[in-house]
User: Fold these one by one.
Assistant:
Number 1:
Amino acid sequence: MVLVFGGTTEGRKAAEVLEEAGSPYFYSTKTGEQDLVLHHGTVISGAMDAANMKSFCHEHDIRLIIDAAHPFANQLHETIASVCSGLHIPVVRYERIYPPRDPGITWIDSYDELPALLSPTLKGTEGSCSLLATTGVQSISRLRPLEAMGIKVSYRILPRESSVRLAKTQGAREEQLCYYEDSKAIDVDADAILLKESGISGGFVEKVAAAKAKGMRIIALKRPQLFNFSTFQPFTLSTVNGPHGLRRAVEKLLPEFFPLHSGLTTGTCATAAAIAQTSRLLRGEMPAEVSVLLPNGETIMVPVGYSDAQCSMPDAQCSMKSGYAYCIKEAGDDPDVTNGIEVRASVESSDTFQILGGEGVGTFTLPGFDFPPGEPAINKAPREMIRKNLERFSMVNGQWSITISVPAGEEIAKRTFNPRLGIEGGISIIGVSGIVKPFSEEAFIESIRKCMEVAKASGAERVVINSGFKSEQYLRAFYPTLPAQAFVQYGNYIGATLRMAHELSMPNVTLGVMLGKAVKLAQGHLDTHSRKTVMDKDFIAQLLLEAGCSADTDNITLARELWEKIPSDKLNDFAQTVIRKCLGHCKPLLPDGKLTILLIDDNGRFYDLMT
């Protein structure tokens, strides 16, 4: 069982990650007032001291703790470390992402520094100075001494009954209290504002910008150093700063919690290898793992390796004369033919910063991609990842050429969509998020989108969407003059594919569908995967009734058996009924285009809507 200490934005994100597993867990907050809807988690409230926490962990067989509590909750962090050390429970600390400290802000280590900072502002004035404190209701008692200095202090707190009660218990007056309407806006005028260094998720950047716009002096209380967990031994600590890193940490420390495990995109692997090799050349460092910045702003640690081997290709094609770094592609439980491949990066001096494709990386030969034909098949997101990561480590100075290679890429590419997309000579380096979720709908739908974009760029008069190899064979024969790029497989995502066609302003779309998916679509299921919907015999009976025909549906296990059960003179009537139902659900998704639906039987015969 997993126990999360939350009550924060990070706590909410942690819960979202754990919900994906479908496994039970506990979510603990001090007040229980966080607005949170959990399907698999149980919310518990109330502060825990060491004895209570230890007892709870014993009683509920807690095997992993996620510390997603506020960065200023040092006492809780220490308690977690103490208890987990004694019980040998690993901890994942979900840390926030912090922007660089702005030198235009006055940074302090404690509230005790405020009197000396603010008292000079009284000199030369009429004795009035105002401060807006946004440091939380717990800080009011620490700030009240400022009032004795003649400073007018306003306290911005959450509009909760418990917060108001606690504020007044500490001596705050009603007229001093103001509330969060927009947590990132500054709606009170004051000479100065006191903030906590709350990180990006705490709206620190937006609050600073709003305060600057009002001309306020900005004073920020530095976040405390992350508690030194290493003082407790034995102790296992993993630190993450985003949802992808959290999931990967849970998968590693408690493998059974997630039924399926995530993996890395080829773009992340290429980025990790590029970081490793550039660091090796510039600094002489060869770490076993490198920190990779993902597109969502979080960082994850990625294993890498190194080789001094020289390129075996002719000198004119060789870019690995100084050796290379590599990363082994880890697909997790996603059925990916690139799992286990070696993605390499070599680095050489150059007149400009550039990213090149080497052995096993394909080349774009058709329009419709992020880059024109002739460019290496390295998509925009991975190129940006490589550039931003090297900039992050001050390793981009306009003098490096990064070559990405995949030795097994050319052979593996034959088992991918690449040949159909016009990517020749190897695989493509892809990845939008940097992480592959197992059987990810996002990843599959993204591949459909790329195929649709290529279909549009091909200039074909029509795009023909279909469920797979068998239906596409029949449809290619039906449309013999269309190029290969005009045929796009939707798998089960009919609705998503039609929406893409609308977004891309495709004027003519043919939807080829076989009966198994057609009866689901006719019922309004735009995603026909078996985990979302199954064949409904009652609905099929209704279709037969509307078509004026009959067939025994009690003993069928597959919809295609209807082709044999329906009388031959009624097949067309039944097909027309199914198509009309399908069209009713699909046409609204393509309002500006012409949609043709072809129902295909097992022998490759087509049924079109008769009008």
Number 2:
Amino acid sequence: MRPLRVTLRSLMLARSLTNRLRTRLGLDREWWLVLVAGGIGIVMGTAAIGFILPIRWLERLPEFLGKEYAGLSHILLLVAPCVGALLTACVFWIFPTNFRGHGVTRVMLAVNREQSNLPIRLGIRHWLASTCTIGSGGSAGPEGPIVTIGATVGSNISRWLKGDGASAATLLGCGSAAGLAAVFNAPLAAIFFTMEVILRDFSLRTFTPIVIASVVSAATAQMWLGSSEPLFGVGIEFFENKSESFTIGQTLFYVAFGLLTSLIAVAFIRMLPLSEKLFARIPVPKLLRPLMGAVLLGCLGAAWSLVHKSDLVDYPPFFGAGYAATRELLDRTLYEPALRGASLEMLWIAGGICIALLLKMIATCLTLGSGGAGGLFAPSLLLGAMSGGAFGMILHAAGFTSAPPPTHLALVGMAAMLASTTHAPLTGVLLVYELTRSYSIMLPLMLTAVIAALASRVLYRDSIYTAELASLGIRLGGMSDLTVLRRLRVSNLPLDQAITVSADDELSKVIGISAEHGVDDFVVLHEDGTYRGMVTSNDLRQALVNRQVISLLSVDEVTRDDLPVVFENETLDVALDRFSRHDVERLTVLSRDTPAQVKGLISRASLMNRYQRELEIS
């Protein structure tokens, strides 16, 4: 009997410890997220292979054509993007969407405004359209689409499992991180990109499932490939001999380079929406705009082919994702000791790199600005490598022999440019670190990436992703603020009773009700009972200044129709944003029914009180 009691006590103790551990990790009610995250990792590790390998094969097609088709290279470079754009337009026609932004921006919008709901057709649309665009030479990256595909998978799995808003956001993040981890074989960078950029949430409850999904996804991709080489084709062995030491004397060079990178990044961020506006003015159907961009890109590629003159059908460095160009730029031939005395030759090479950098920016704007499919991650990496290589060569040509080698600056430039364009320095640092596996590079990586990100934010408030959201009138706040406010909805707050009046009522009636019952704000309705506007306490005070005209005024003449409404299922960050745009104490809350019914009034004070209580709890 005694051994049985001991066994029972041991089981109860183990259960108690397990429950405490789950509670401490924030998994006491949602432990199932960990299991689902592992499943998402397996799915996305496999899906990433199916998505990336066809694009790699299409990009390497010129190598397979060989010398026999070298004379037709300029024709192929002109025609291929146009064919890809037409196929992309067909995909867009079959899978339409009202959102005009790119993949990562669409995912951010879903997290912040749509309860992390993404339709399954969005993932299919980005998969097919991105393959057509990038595979035919469009200047874009596959990482944005794979993030969107993964987020769509996570969102729909949450919907099938009937998860709430918090678990939906977590599983969406698991999918996006898993896709990125498989592509780069860089789970750390994928984790922090998801938490820095997409979810903007570093809580342990979110962190744990995302880590599991990323690690499982990277391991699955390696299992299918049979190697640890990233899918875009740069392996660890590539960086083995690039281990020259970094010295404290090089700090100023890295600081200067960080500032330079921020200037290039801001120019790139601002060029993209400008190109979208220019293409929007072309009097052609929206679905044919990618073809206009492809024609211009093809002409650019054909001109490059005629000037370049090669025995092979070469892929222009500004075509496609640009990983082949990045690898070539990072090659040891970029900086040879024999060139240290050849200043003029180094300047010529640096000038060529700068021209290629400008062409890459233009090509990306032509592809994505016209409406083509793809991401901005890969172009940012190539722009960073180019800017670092050119800057290093110019320094050495100018006689700064103590400056870092151009290869090192190219590596650091990848992290700095990514940090500048996305405002995610951790992601940039960890990505390059996971590619090089060299700890000695961490100091200049962190220094340059942080300086570049800070300078970029000073020069331009928005990142390359939030700029698209800002154009839609959506602003994202701080990470902790959003985490708290996104958990609550307007329906979670106590609403004040709405006193409704008709637009045809006399203003004197409203003033009488206000004086008798102490009511400050009134909701004005049309004759059919639909919402018309509000009469606020400020409006009443202004009317009381001229009492002699009160009897001559109707409610409709003092009604404010410029005030926004809040729907009962919207999150509190949306409500707070509406309050911040107008100097009022209350806003009308409507239901989502058709026609919408007035549910009450939400006050600024009740919102802030609930916000403070949630901050104390979390």
